[in-house]
Write a structure and sequence with these properties.
This protein is an alpha+beta fold. The protein has two domains: 141 residues, Jelly Rolls (Sandwich); 72 residues, Arc Repressor Mutant, subunit A, CATH 1.10.10.10. The chain is built from ten helices and eight strands. Strands 1, 2, 3, 4 and 5 form a five-stranded antiparallel β-sheet that branches. Helix 6 packs across helix 9 and helix 7 packs across helix 8. It is globular and about 55 Å long. The C terminus is likely disordered.
């Protein structure tokens, strides 16, 4: 069976059959366990990554050593924007936040594909715009909204990238991602649980009432999703589209 037929990454599946097929043999399937390092600040990107399942976090480390998440990537996109922009060096720590799997392509192969595969380059460039939007929206969200709203937004984004309702996650990790104290996250999680929106245990959070979570979440959640759909032409949370069938030549 062709590896290409197994790809679930929505960005890749949005390519025409011929554009995706030319990448056969260059994409290597990988597992992405929780906390798996993809790139470190000032480290070199050896691969571009295309998640099928799970969620990858882009994390800023302050001069004081504090960690805060500034962006997330799931099956809707790719990791390795600096490569496309002409730099192989990461300016952030990048690692798998919600466990999953996906595909990787060596940096040299990715660069060649960007030069020779116009469809791939165009989609990746559009995806960069959505990441700029997400990062700026996250900055505003961290400044303006309550921990409960931000917590609901984050859990919804994680759920969008993983069709199961359960997110493998500790409160300690979530507090680091939101840039708040663990005690604040503990209160927010208990508030959401008391409202029968989620349930949580050691190392997991399960969404019970998604519609209710959307009502609690701040408007940043809808803003990020709407801009993504408008720019990319498919939903961040959609199941992957069927790749275009090859044309039959008469």
């Amino acid at each position: 069976m062709s590896h290409i037929s197994l790809v679930k990454n929505t960005l890749l599946r949005s390519l025409s059959h011929s554009a995706l097929e030319r990448m056969e043999g260059k994409l290597k399937h990988i597992e992405l366990p929780r906390k798996a390092s993809i790139a470190e600040k000032d480290g070199r990107f050896n691969y571009a990554y295309f998640p099928d399942e799970g969620m990858v976090s882009i994390v800023l480390v302050t001069g004081e050593g504090d960690h805060i998440e500034v962006g997330t990537v799931g099956k809707e996109g790719f990791v390795g924007i600096p490569i496309l922009l002409g730099a192989d060096i990461s300016d952030r720590n990048v690692y798998s936040q919600v466990p999953g799997n996906g595909w990787k392509m060596e940096t040299a192969d990715f660069k060649r594909e960007l030069e020779q595969n116009a469809e791939l380059k165009a989609l990746c460039q559009k995806f960069i715009l959505t990441m700029f939007n997400q990062i700026s929206q996250t900055a505003a969200c961290n400044r303006l909204h309550t921990i409960e709203e931000r917590c609901a937004r984050w859990l919804l984004l994680a759920h969008d990238r993983d069709t199961s309702k359960t997110v493998d996650l500790t409160q300690e990790f979530l507090s680091m991602m939101l840039g708040v104290r663990r005690s604040g996250v503990n209160i927010a999680v208990k508030t959401l649980e008391a409202a029968n929106l989620i349930e949580h245990g050691r190392g997991f959070v399960r969404i019970i009432d998604r519609r209710g979570m959307e009502e609690v979440s701040c408007g940043c959640y809808d803003e990020v999703k709407q801009y993504f759909t408008q720019t990319m032409g498919f939903s961040m949370a959609s199941s992957f589209p069927k790749a275009a069938e090859p044309e039959l030549l008469g």
